[in-house]
Amino acid sequence: MSQPTPSPIQAPGSAFWAGVRAQLPILLGTSPFGMIYGVLAVGAQLPFAAAQGMSALVFAGSAQFIATGLFGGGTPGPLIVLITFVVNLRHALYSASLAPHLRGLSARWRAVLAFLLTDEAYAVVITHAASAPPQDAGQTRRLGWYTLGAGLTLFVSWQISTALGALLGAAVPASWELDFTLALTFIALVIPALTDRPALASALVAGVTAVLARGLEFRLGLLVAAAAGIAAGLLAERVWPLAPVAEEGR
Amino acid sequence: MIGPNMTPLGIWLTILGMALVTFGTRASALLLIGEGELPLNVRRALRYVPPAVLTAIIFPALLAPDGPLDISLGNARLLAGIAAGLIAWRARSTLLAIGAGMLLLWGLRWLLGS
Predict the structure, then answer these.
(1) Among A14, A80, A219, B107, which residue carries the largest CB count within 10 Å?
(2) Residues of A whose CB is below 8 A from B60
């Protein structure tokens, strides 16, 4: 990521647009997913308004995919809600990870940003926040605008792509494999986070665990792998203690 | 597919419930403990969330793209992903890594004839 470090003269508007720009490459990967969701939702005999309403109110790709299958299979509503909760538990990790950086914002601001906190927005925002942690109220506000820009960009494109999918059917041929751009984006985002040996150990253990646990239902493998990776990072700190400087920026 | 086994009201209540629990997970720390300082141990652990979560998404996508483990030269996504990682490391550019990774994937598919 070659993003400009927030400078004191950066206005809220430019922070917003920086967030939008950072999110744009990711749309290449999420838009085909949105279209496929639209196709599936209508195929599961959900009314168009409900298919679109789910995208607008829930705004969580993998949970929506799973829910369409459950709706189509006649699963009772409370069970669909419970499964959605389990699938989205990983967002609590993202929330805790961003909370220290956004602590200075008002509750209303934090509520809006929480609503927009998807996997993809988190990946972009935490990379930005970790490279230049906000030091004062002004920088915190600019990180808020940056997060809003990134989150809204994904929200708007998600609404458009799911509507197109529900209306037109699958417009992008699967043979283009555009879904792979998501994995490529995450690769480009994780590399700058591998700054020291504990971080590297954390990443490797999480990756291997995720491969081993990939058969678990409801994306639980991701939670298990994240927990294993965090534990590995903390253990590795005992072998390779972090420099005090690296500790300072958290 | 037998379709939703509920009334339109039931469908909307289910979607509202989904929205509430999703917002709950995302707002948990941001709203509840957003006011105060997080304990040092928690902050130390949170440092590893980005590398752990991102790699946990990346590894299965590269090593088992179709479900079963596939560590071979015939796995185009694995090769393209490794190349994109090297490019991201040397060039520090997201767009370059994505572009090169996709071109390589398409090139490999063409070469491997799949």
Answers:
(1) A80
(2) 210-211, 214, 221
Q: Is residue B92 part of a domain?
A: yes
Which 3 state secondary structure label does DSSP give A123? Answer: helix
Q: Same domain for B58 and B89?
A: yes
Classify residue A32 as left (phi > 0), alpha (psi -120 to 50) or beta. Answer: alpha
* B62 & B83 share domain: yes
Please state the domain extents for chain A.
Answer: 12-176, 194-250
Contact B60 A103 (CB under 8 A): no
Asked if residues A189 and A1 have their Cβ atoms less than 8 Å apart, the reply is yes
Residues B102 and B57 in one domain: yes
Q: Is the ipTM of this complex over 0.85?
A: no
The pLDDT tens digits of the residues spanning B5-26 come to 789 999 999 999 999 999 999 9
Partner A contacted by B6 (CB < 8 A): yes
- Nearest CA among B85, B6, B14, B15 for reference residue A57: B15
Give yes or no: residues B54 and B105 share one domain: yes
Q: Which amino acid is at A108?
A: R
- Residue B17: which domain range? 8-36
- Say whether pTM exceeds 0.90: no
> What's the CA gap between A43 and A57, in Å, rounded?
20
Q: Which of B24, B29, B51 sits opposite A190 (nearest CB)?
A: B51
